[in-house]
Write a structure and sequence with these properties.
124 residues; mainly alpha
């Protein structure tokens, strides 16, 4: 497990390195909230995928180990997988409620909220 975590960290290092280069820079609170919402949604989707894989694995092992004593551990794994999936989905719902409340869903919002500091126009 430790080798898997280390290999994933090494594989994802370029993503961290290019995080500042790719995408729009954070200029105001709206763009920051938009970026944080996108990161949160990505994390939630990854967590849902992991929880579903964990749940399916425990269900399959529960069926395969039908006559053995290990069945109790997989039964509790199925229960905790369902509980974990419910918690993750409720967090996703909470994020959706918060983004709709503060108006950061859908688009990044206006790119220019305040007037630019331009020189006065030349009168001829």
């Amino acid at each position: 497990m430790k080798k898997l975590i280390v290999s994933l960290a090494v594989a994802l290092m370029p993503v961290v390195a290019f995080a500042q280069v790719i995408g729009n820079p954070v200029r105001d609170v709206n763009s920051l909230a938009y970026k944080l919402t996108g990161i949160g949604n990505t994390i939630i989707v990854i967590l849902i995928a992991v929880a579903v894989i964990y749940l399916v694995y425990n269900i399959l092992m529960f069926i395969v180990k039908a006559g053995s004593e290990d069945r109790k551990t997989y039964q509790s794994g199925v229960l905790w997988g369902i509980v974990g999936l419910a918690v993750i989905l409720s967090i996703w719902g909470l994020v959706a409620i918060l983004t709709n409340t503060f108006g950061t869903s859908g688009s990044q919002g206006p790119t220019q909220q305040y007037p630019q500091n331009l020189p006065p126009p030349v009168v001829q």
